[in-house]
UniProtKB/TrEMBL annotation:
Coiled-coil residue spans: none
Binding site for ATP: 83-93
Gene3D superfamilies membership: 3.30.230.10, GHMP kinase, C-terminal domain
Residue span(s) of domain GHMP kinase C-terminal: 201-257
Pathway noted in the entry: Amino-acid biosynthesis; L-threonine biosynthesis; L-threonine from L-aspartate: step 4/5
Residue ranges occupied by any GHMP kinase N-terminal domain in the UniProt entry: 55-136
GO biological process: threonine biosynthetic process
Catalytic activity: L-homoserine + ATP = O-phospho-L-homoserine + ADP + H(+)
HAMAP family per UniProt: Homoser_kinase
Family to which the UniProt record says this protein belongs: Belongs to the GHMP kinase family. Homoserine kinase subfamily.
Role according to the record: Catalyzes the ATP-dependent phosphorylation of L-homoserine to L-homoserine phosphate.
Protein name: Homoserine kinase
Amino acid sequence: MINIKIPATSANLGAGFDALGLALNYYNYVEMEESDVIDIASSDDIAVPCDERNLIYLSAKDLYAVCGKKLEGLKLRQTNNIPMARGLGSSSACIIAGLVGANKMLGDPLTKDDLVDLAAQIEGHPDNTAPALLGGIVTAVFDGRKVHWVKQEVYTKLKFVAMIPDFELKTEEARACLPKEVSHKDAVYNLSRAALFSASLLTGKFENLRTAVHDKLHQPYRMELIPGCREVFDIAYTHGAYASYISGAGPTVMSIVDVENQYFAGKMKFSLDNAGLGGWQVKELAIDNDGTVLIDS
């Protein structure tokens, strides 16, 4: 039995739409091995597809096909800590689990670059799949076939605090609300801030982060689909967040906070409850620099 640990991810990081993402220390766990039949079950109380529609199974099957093999069946056990449809990379975690597990079962015929490429082809973009596999903060460009990526390990005095609402937002819906075209001015606005984000995070100029997460390509439109989102932003800044942004397609709001701001999460929960947003969970996280790893049985 192959045991896999896959981190949650937070994509876009404000202005880096479909290009920036980072891994977080919040994990799904998957156990898998070859079988003559499809034998899929949840190890917790989270409902998952238990047939050929299962995304882990489909991803493993795709890797087998790339390698010229047929996957007859799969025994699979999932522990899903990462909440689904919340902008924390639950789908990407499934894709990466299937690819890493299948590659291991075949004797590792594909390289890490191959896995990054295949994951992006399945998902359509690499901003979640690449950091889920690689860890750290990843800057990636997908040209339709190949992902050109850079991973940077991040060791900073920062924590990432996720405000996770009690409702889902499907990625398809969150993408459907975006404009088909943007102005040259808005494109320049985002490009400059995406570059500023990475440079500021990695050099410790955290005072730049609030400006760096501003965006005109997706967040203004997605905010309208997330009741309470603007209020969560305002509360986070009141309690000293360096920056706040919509994580992935939403609806989770992520705040970047100094580790010395030790009561931030507690103050956020108290304020959200008082603002009538008691359904929002507050979870304190850190960057995961390792990405997906195999666990010794």
